[in-house]
């Protein structure tokens, strides 16, 4: 067998570079779509949690003579049994939730409780709540809330430089 009869069966550097460029382009197109899907899933989870919490707040109010619970920082009046006065004890009412809901955007179950307008909130807080009327909203970054088309009925926003 002479040197002229040997056939090479390998890729050239140019062919390998073309494949790498094509894979890079595909990754640039596909990865953001997965990221958007994850954010959309978080938004769906958030809205579902809000529906559950709101329905349980209403049930609490009905069973406690028209009074909404004080959530404080630990959600005890919804996660433990309560008396008609709202005292956490081995009473007949509740628990209304198995555990404190965690806001998937802030990764927090903390509650800013007060009589504010519930329009804006501080970063890092999971929820804002008004115990006078039972209104509760999730805390979400303003730009993220806009991007995901979250309703102002469902979210209180904060601005950040992220």
TrEMBL record:
Q: Which InterPro entries match?
A: Bac_GSPG_pilin, N_methyl_site, Pilin-like, T2SS_protein-GspG_C
Where does the signal sequence lie? none
Q: Which residues cross the membrane?
A: 12-31
Residues in domain Type II secretion system protein GspG C-terminal? 37-108
Q: How does it sit in the membrane?
A: Single-pass membrane protein
Q: Where in the cell is it found?
A: Membrane
Q: Which gene encodes it?
A: xcpT_1
GO CC, any one term: type II protein secretion system complex
Name of the molecule in the record: Type II secretion system protein G
GO annotation terms (biological process): protein secretion by the type II secretion system
Keywords tagged on the record: Membrane, Methylation, Transmembrane, Transmembrane helix
